[in-house]
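Entry for the shared binder. Reason: the reviewer on the internal report wants the predicted structure included alongside the sequence.
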Amino acid sequence: MALIHYVECNTTHEANFVVDVPAGSQWLLVMTKTPAQFWVHGGLKLYPAHTAVLYRPRQKVYYRACGESFANDWIRFEADEPYITESPLPSGIPFALSDPDSCRKLVELLVSEHHFDRDCKASSIDLLLRALFNKLWESYFQGNITPQYYKLLRLRTLIQSNPGEYWTVSRMADVLEISPGYLQNIYKKTFGLSCMEDVINSRVRMAKEYLIHSTESIAGVAARCGYPNVEHFCRQFKQMTGYTPRNYQKQTKGYIE
C-alpha cells in the first residue's frame, strides 16, 4: 500500500525558495506550476511550468525557484506498490505533464482524503494515487509537450465539456487568439482530428445519451446539443452513426428493455 506523510496543493513560495536534501528518506513527487531549476546529472537546469519529477528514497533532492515566486503541488509518501516501485518513470529526471489540470484535481482530492479520517480513507488514497500515476505515465510517454499544447488542451476540454455551445472555427481561434487557418492546422496535428470533427463527435456522443436516457423530444435533444436546425442535426447524426435519431432511439431502447 501507499502511505502519504504530507501532501499540498497550490503551495506558493518566495523567489528565494530552495529545497536541498542530500538523501531523502521517502518518495517525493513534485509538480510545478511555475518555472523552476532542478539538479539533474550534476548541474542545475531550468524547466518550464507543468513539470513533474519523482524522487525515490535516498535520492538527492534539489530544486529552487527561478522567478518572483514558485508554486507547486507535492506529495511525500512511502510505497511498496509495484505501480510505484516498478514504475517506468525516471527518478530525479523532470518531464512535462500532458494534463496538468487533471493532475491538480487529483492532488486536491488527495489533500482532502489525507486530512480527514474517513472510513474508506486508505482505499480512496490508493485509487487516487493510481489515477495520478496513470496520468504521469501518459505524460512521460507522450513527449514533445509545448506551451501551445496546453492552450489547445484547454480548448478541447471546453469543447468536450460544452458541446452544445455555438462552436465555430473562428470562435475557437478567438479563444486562443490565433488565425482560424493556423488553428485547424495545429489542432489536427496535435489530436489527429480537426477541431470541428471534435465538436461534432462530442455533440453526437451527448445526443446518444439524451436520446436513450431522457424523455426529451428529438428537437429538444438537437437544441441541447447545439443544433438550432433539427434537420441538420438528423442529417449529421445519421452520417456519424448510420441511423436517424428516431431509429437509433428505437433500436437502443428496445435493446435496453
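Summary line for the report: The first helix runs from residue 82 to 85.
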